[in-house]
Specification:
This protein is of the alpha/beta class. It contains 17 helices and 20 strands. The longest helix is centred in the C-terminal third of the chain and has 23 residues.
Length: 530
């Protein structure tokens, strides 16, 4: 099985993951921009990082230390995820941050929702207050994250430093920008009090290494669209903004360069180094120069993470900012890019509101390998719900068993091997399902092992939606199987839509299988041998 190997975006190959301290791993994930509810594409990235974090914490996971020795879990992972609550611009990926203010757009959406009565009755938010808007969506993200088992969202409710807000770290950003200017890695342009500050990409020879770009190829500027006025002020088209003085901006702060707001990229460097590397305001000192893991969606690689690497290394003087870069690929819906215009745009909150079980949503979003595109499908969500229920029954039967059983070393090792190999969650789930399918009478040891696996999967103990209860059978003296459960779910859906002909047909099909069904209290179905 060996030690954990992960694909590293920086080197573009799978390699052994070596944290600075294998007993305490530092992990930073790019989190939500709170101008709206996070969609399932965002959560695909967040949950991929959550599964990795859970696996590193697992007693089954072995890591290699800097000394070359193998270190086994359990261990601590300090996982931090930022909340971007600064009012950035719609063209924030561009080198000079143009376009419209995202927070102003969010305020307009909220105002329209308020007028039309689409906001929930308990949603008290002032659409004209950008800080209130940001806090409104930040709390909704935390609620949604906690609902689908995102550990950093759950822990962040107790320790706010694990969910740092960009608005609370402006002093650290100014500290870093000042340091970059002093080191010759950044420069200010414009009249005093009305200046913009840019990072000088020519001052960092490794700029482009993460995204496999070259400075020569970036002649149009990091991220694409730039204004000609700002472009003419820069030394190189790829130089990116660290601060922009703008006294009219919706959210602004005083700075040595004028009242304004920070660039998008500097925020994550300041927040990650402040919480994980010991950046101290008023001295820019560091307890350690880098962090172990940094994650995000593949759309973050360039320009955002590329710029983070450059400014962080230039500020700390360290050769690396993150030892390992972990990126999840894109999510599609029914084979197409997610789009509000196409009507295939979903948020976690929306799916929960439609009655989908949190565990099913989570399993569907984590079930594919993180380096493969994920195709989110309605049928897949149903299949995931069925799989979770199967796992729950397996654990319940095992915990109720009178037999202690023996630990299944073969399955434990097979699942461990899959997850140690670039976090192959799909392969691990396949091993789990093969084991459960071959186990007629689970024992207490089986239930305990499944609980260990679920420490990584994170689905069994999530809240169950009431609608999911209606299709679950109570098996009396009968062994359940997937085919029977599927028929019960189909029958429940038919009855809900008043399709009684289909409901009767399924009853007859179950009868032909030698099973009798009876609708009982709680919306469940009792299944007995006919």
């Amino acid at each position: 099985m060996g030690v954990l190997r992960l694909h590293n975006t920086m080197t573009r190959r799978e390699e052994v993951f070596v944290p600075a301290d294998p007993a305490c791993v530092t992990f930073y994930s790019c989190g939500p921009t709170v101008y709206d509810d996070s969609h399932i594409g965002n959560f695909r990235s967040f949950l991929a990082a959550d599964v990795l974090r859970r696996w590193i914490e697992s007693p089954l996971c072995a890591l290699q230390g800097p000394d070359g020795a193998e270190h086994r879990g359990p261990r601590e992972v300090v996982h931090v995820m930022n909340i971007t609550d600064v009012g950035h611009m719609t063209d924030d990926a561009a080198a000079d941050g143009g376009g419209e203010d995202k927070m102003a757009q969010a305020g307009q959406r909220l105002l329209e929702a308020k007028k039309s009565g689409k906001l929930p009755p308990d949603a008290s938010v002032d659409p004209s207050d950008p800080h209130a808007i940001a806090e409104f969506y930040a709390q909704r993200f935390i609620e949604d994250g906690a609902a689908v088992g995102l550990k950093v969202a759950i822990e962040g409710q107790r320790d706010a430093s694990l969910l740092p807000r960009a608005t609370a770290h402006v002093p650290q950003m100014i500290e870093m920008i000042t340091r970059l200017i002093e080191r010759g890695a950044a420069y200010a342009v414009g009249e005093p009090g009305e200046q913009a500050v840019y990072f000088d990409v020519d001052a960092f020879e490794r700029y482009g290494a993460l995204s496999n770009n070259t400075i020569e190829a970036l002649s149009v500027g990091a991220g694409g669209r730039v204004s000609e006025t700002n472009q003419s002020q820069k030394k190189h088209p790829a130089d990116f903004m660290l601060w922009k003085a703008d006294a009219s901006h919706l959210m602004r702060w005083p700075s040595p360069w004028g009242e304004g707001y920070p660039g998008w990229h500097i925020e994550c460097s300041a927040m990650s180094l402040a919480r994980l590397a010991g950046l101290r305001e008023g001295g820019a000192t560091f307890d350690r120069p880098d962090i172990d893991l940094h994650s995000g969606g593949e759309d973050n690689i360039f320009p955002h993470h590329e710029c983070e690497v450059a400014q962080s290394c230039a500020a700390t003087g360290a050769p690396t900012f993150a030892r390992h870069w972990f990126h999840a690929r894109f999510l599609f819906v029914e084979g197409e890019k997610m789009s509000k215009r196409k009507g295939n745009f979903f948020t976690v909150r929306q799916l929960l509101g439609e009655g989908h079980e949190p565990a099913a949503i989570r399993l569907e979003l984590i079930g594919a390998h993180y380096r493969n595109n994920l195709d989110f499908r309605a049928q897949g969500l149903k299949d995931s719900a069925r799989t979770v229920e199967r796992w729950r029954r397996f654990v319940a039967q095992g915990e109720a068993s009178e037999s202690p059983g023996e630990p299944n070393a073969a399955t434990r090792d097979a699942v461990t091997s899959r997850l140690q190999d670039d976090l192959n969650i799909a392969g691990a789930i396949g091993e789990i399902n093969k084991w459960i399918g071959a186990t007629e009478r689970p024992t207490r040891a089986d239930a305990e092992l499944m609980r260990t696996f679920d420490g990584v999967l994170g689905v069994l103990d999530l809240a169950q939606a009431e609608s999911a209860e209606t299709s679950i059978g109570v098996f009396v003296g009968v062994e359940s199987d997937e085919r029977v459960v599927a028929l019960l779910e189909e029958r429940a859906a038919a009855r809900a839509s008043k399709d009684f002909a289909t409901s009767d047909r399924i009853r007859d099909e179950l009868s032909a299988m030698g099973l009798a069904i009876k609708d009982v209290a709680g919306g469940k179905v009792e299944v007995t041998r006919a």
